[in-house]
Amino acid sequence: MFDKLLDFVPSIPIAEKTEVVTDWLTSTFSFLFDPLKEHFGNFMEFTTNALLAVPPVIIIVIVALLAFFITGKKLGLAVFSIVGLWLIYNQGFWEHLISTFTLVLIASVLSVVIGVPVGILMSKSKIAEAIITPILDFMQTMPAFVYLIPAVAFFGIGMVPGIFASLIFATPPTVRFTNLGIRQVSQELVEASEAFGSTGSQKLFKVELPMAKATIMAGINQTVMLALSMVVIASMIGAPGLGREVLSSLQRAQVGTGFVAGIGIVILAIIIDRFTQHVNTKNN
Amino acid sequence: MPVIEVKNLSKVFGRNTRQTLKLLDEGLSKSEILEQTGNTVGVNRASFSVDAGEIFVIMGLSGSGKSTLIRLVNRLIEPTEGNIYIDGDDLSKMDKKSLRKVRREKLSMVFQKFALFPHRTILENAEYGLEIQNVPKEERQKKAKDALEMVGLGGYLHQAPGQLSGGMQQRVGLARALANDPEVLLMDEAFSALDPLIRKEMQDELIDLQASMKKTILFITHDLDEALRLGDRIALMKDGSIVQIGTPEEILVKPANDYVEKFVEDVDRSKILTAQHIMKRPETVNIDRHGPRVALERMRAEGISSILVVDSQRNLKGYVTADDALDARNQDIRDLNEILKTDIIRVNKDKAMNDIFNIIHDSTTPVAVVEDEKLLGIIVRGAVIAGLAGEGEVNLDV
Predict the structure, then answer these.
(1) Cα separation of B383 and B357, whole Å?
(2) Does residue B317 contact residue B284 with C-beta atoms inside 8 Å?
(3) Which of B26, B48, B82, B396 could form a disulfide with B8 if both were Cys (CB 3.0 to 4.6 A apart)?
């Protein structure tokens, strides 16, 4: 009898409606999605090819040198970079590495370009904060695989939908940390800036953003890491790179190859993480 | 014409603030309003004016609304009601652009916790006010350097604020405020975060600077001593209202009500502490029973060079010195009356410490504290200083 209480309305067709909406979006905005996919795809291919045109040795040396200087002339990260990148090369995953890196790079840059201004908006407006916060929660808690579905619908398969899915998944930390960083700037400093007659943008660029920089950088670090993890998942919809190797090993139960590709991702993750962290501490 | 004129300025924090003002008119107190409406009265109908070149001090305990009031003057906080005239222009009615212009050209602020920008060097901090007005780099650097020079920090241009001591940081804060040559300086508890010695130094320096620059200064403090040192006139605040405005003299001599009187009375410990608070238990000999030998023995045991002499009723008779007692013993004199000295300074136990300070300064012997004729204790020079210093700065927030 009680069961009937719950059945007072028939099942709401959320799934069906979502599909209708997505279909509608796809067909209505195909004029937007299609060229976006094409140009963006070309751009990414170009970037990947450009990086691949550089001999691996040179890239490894450049990364090692950067690591050396960015860590304050310590050898640790530099040595790790040389050994790690060489190992990836040695295992024949260099091309995949470059593809993955391109995806991470572009997804991260886009995340930051979108995330920082949104974060600033949130910090300036309570209404914006109230609206955006639940959206961010949604974006971060929805299983990452789910984003692959509309990504495919909009952009087909390949690199571009991979970027799209990473963007949704990886942008929230930058937004949150930018908001947090600006809100954490001490009230007295904001007052000082205002008391001398700063305009809103002077206050933002001369006081708030410089003061929030460390926090924002921590958010960006998170974003880059999430982008990397998403890029691996995105291999399911045809994004190239190390993730695809992991996926195909999984499908064929090749433990060895899967392990090696996994190690490659770990090495890349460590290098990127240390790089973004050190850029942060160096600036302090 | 006054440089700053504040008329009926009020600030209520919360909702329906206008209605809250009506409740104030009906005579409800700050706490009653908080209970009824949940709103906090920051400032309640404050009116005052500050003339050119005057240091006007606003003093009150924490929570009295003084920090809100100073932020209303440059509209860092929007007033609920009332007017602020700077050189006759009503700041409360200005649009953002005109307000910025006034802030840039006429008003500068110095903050309690310095509020220096940690990511900028000392010079860049001092430049800030000019930088946002787009003054060319060379010109603004020159002005900023001059200002830093003026506060004695010409040699620290490229340090980070964190590398400087508190006193030096506040000098930077002052230089930053002076660099764009404003008419008005708003100083919000500017010296309160500094330790007492540095605070005095900064007060003196502000007075020196003021002698040459003749700014109009609105100075907030919770410290009456500071208010008395700096203020040409003082306004006392309580619960958001101004209780009395007057010269330091008037505030001290003619307190407007009990609150002010209590405030003024509590201020200086040297005025509250009396002889009995700082006296020590004296070493004595009884003239009726003891002779020079006992006196000498006591002095030797205590390591002192003179000892007070009382009778059996503890009435103070005088004192004897070790030299005299030694002579007396050698000459076999038994009576202390023979060598008794009576030129000892006596003070009543209720004598204020302030006055004792002057007395003991001229005295080579300890000062005796008496009630009627009875000896209660002695005061040595060190005790007065310890009494003054030991209580430290009188902080009215305590």
Answers:
(1) 10
(2) no
(3) B82
Q: What are the residues whose beta carbons fall under 8 Å from the beta carbon of A251, sequence distance 6 or more?
A: none
CATH number of B4-106+182-267: 3.40.50.300
CATH 3.10.580.10 fits B275-390, yes or no: yes
Q: Decide: B92 and B102 in contact? Cβ < 8 Å.
A: no
pLDDT of residue B33: 87
Whole-number Å distance between alpha carbons of B282 and B260: 39
Q: Are B51 and B22 in contact (CB under 8 A)?
A: no
Question: pLDDT for A204-254, tens place per residue?
Answer: 999 999 999 999 999 999 999 999 988 888 888 888 888 888 888 888 988
Please report which helix (H) or strand (E) contains residue B59, including its range.
strand B55-59
- Inform me whether the C-beta atom of residue B328 falls under 8 Å from chain A C-beta atoms: no
B residues 156-185 near A, CB within 8 Å?
A: 176, 180
Question: Closest partner residue to A199 among B76, B100, B112, by Cβ?
Answer: B100
Cβ neighbours of B14 (radius 10 Å): 15
Q: Where are the domains of chain B?
A: 4-106+182-267, 275-390
Q: Nearest-CA neighbor of B110 among B241, B37, B29, B206? A: B206
Nearest residue to A41 via CA among A225, A239, A245: A239
Question: Which one, of B174, B155, B170, lies nearest residue B213 by Cα?
Answer: B174
Looking at beta carbons, which residues of chain B come within 8 Å of A202?
Answer: 132
- HSE at residue B199, side-chain half, CA atoms within 13 A, is 19
Q: Which helix (H) or strand (E) holds A233?
A: helix A209-233
One-letter amino acid for residue B362 of the chain: D
Phi, psi of A10 (to 5 degrees): -70, 165
Is the CB of B117 less than 8 angstroms away from the CB of A189? Answer: yes
CB count within 10 Å of CB B145 equals 18
Q: For chain A, which residues lie within 8 Å of any Cβ of chain B, measuring from their own Cβ?
A: 186, 188-189, 191-199, 202, 206-207, 210-211, 213
Residue among A224, A228, A201 at smallest CA distance from A124? A201
- CA-to-CA distance for A154 and A33, rounded, in angstroms? 6
| Tokens linked to A197 | 């007659």
Domains annotated for chain A, with CATH where assigned, are: 13-53+91-283 (1.10.3720.10)
pLDDT attached to residue B301:
83
Q: Does residue B129 belong to the interface with chain A, where contact is any CB pair within 8 Å?
A: yes
Query: Å from B266 to nearest chain A CA?
Result: 31
